[in-house]
């Protein structure tokens, strides 16, 4: 699924529907042609002239108010173009400015409107843009493909996007290095260097991120022997507001280099990146179903013997989907085993549940008793599409979501098997539709001696879900990486053999109904709050920078700021911000709240 930054320009005007008036037009009524003469009424009692004037003014005021309200209602709603009477012209809605851009992340959970959206085409253009913004103190927050669930790159004040700076500048096949402009997307880069027999060491779940963005937020793949993606960076060119363009590497200002590799876009605009690549190779993916009890027996071996491994836990079931990926053996090759079940057989349980559920919910909702002719044939839908449609029927009902999870468990039991492909094809993962995500990272011992805290975390999380009746969909995804030497990475460590576990929880947003999306959002943040209260401090867990959300409560925000100070070099980061970006033109509301710069500093 293509997931990229959504950018829309406003139209000149917005269409409005004209509400139908509940009152019939005023008409003169006649009962018949016959004239009836009623008896004369009794004479009214005498009243003073002052009382008569008061009554007259009162009712005249009521009449004037009614006339004005009617006129305002009539003229304030433009009629459709095909109306037979003349359109009203007294009140008009001002159109939105043509230069106003609406920018949202792919999940539609964060959105801003800005007049200042810049896409330079060359390094010189970028340098001039940053210089001018610095002099005028205009914000231009760096934003990539807009894939971050928390919208960390968005800013109403202004943004700079390097989508037009997406070239491969240099390939060193012998040293397995590539220098690229930071706006190039991961898939673009992989396609461009495959002719040299090279690829990236590891990948996140999707391929549409810009290289500059994926390293700045500390993104990661999976594999206990492999570090997060920022560790692939061996050099970078940073365009800073105060010091211009600077070249960084482990040999040129190593302290700033390591800080800026995972700099959250706050130290400069990453213009170019030099990456250490690896030889392109085919991988053998093995997917099979296990249980947590079985995993405990084999966990150390699974982490140490597989180049890539991840677990997918299905709440309200005992099922754990294990996915391992390793280079195809030159001697034995890929297994010749054929899948036991066809795709249709694997999806049967999910399709049956959908048919049963759709009938049940149509009976409950009288407005949906007849099938919608626009609904696609469920036999044409993928598993993730079917899951979205199932969850959309009752997304906050834990019993319903539990049934969906059980159907998913059956799907995976019939999807066991092997798959061979290039690493950029195999290591991807269909994450499903729009969703809220929270992902935490915490230490898990060493490769030689795993602490088993990672599995204890999952046990407590699953118990919490069932105890609180959280409508938690599948999967809870668990991955591992080695350490990072970037101090702002959640996986930072000075010990070379440390490993870290990353655990992601989700709630899907399978509907466009704003009210239902709000209800799901509220439930997700309740879910996230419970995991935070019960687990984060106990396991020294910290959220992924692209998935952290800013608390609305002042005390919660202060607690978050203090907590971040315990894990990350916030003072060093803010010092670098003051030196490189003193006017904070590269910042936004999220960065300012996470890392407030004191006035006395």
TrEMBL record:
GO terms for molecular function: D-arabinono-1,4-lactone oxidase activity; FAD binding; galactonolactone dehydrogenase activity; oxidoreductase activity. It comes from Brassica campestris (Field mustard). Residues 8-17 have a biased composition (Low complexity). Keywords: Oxidoreductase. The keyword Oxidoreductase applies. It comes from the Eukaryota. Residues 8-52 are annotated as: Disordered. Pfam families: ALO (PF04030), FAD_binding_4 (PF01565). GO terms for cellular component: membrane. Residues 109-280 form the FAD-binding PCMH-type domain. This is FAD-binding PCMH-type domain-containing protein.
